[in-house]
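Its record is set out here:
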Amino acid sequence: MSDLNITGEMTTGEVTERWPSTKEVFTRHFGSGCFTCPAFGTEPISMACSMHSTDLDMFCEELTEAAEADEAAG
């Protein structure tokens, strides 16, 4: 296991650009329209979770797992 840790302070764009597999987590929780939202890319993950009534800790854990899979794939 890596020491990778995605937090609520990171932006949605920062995470999806660095770890593309995290897009699936955003889609699963926020819907497929997530990526066409004007705020996507610049808003903090904590704000996105708040807007979608999604548990921040759980969401960040899922993002981190997806990112770790990207890192492992090289």
Observations:
- The longest helix spans residues 56-73.
- Helices lie at 12-18, 22-30, 45-51, 56-73.
- The chain has one domain: 13-73.
- The mean pLDDT is 92.
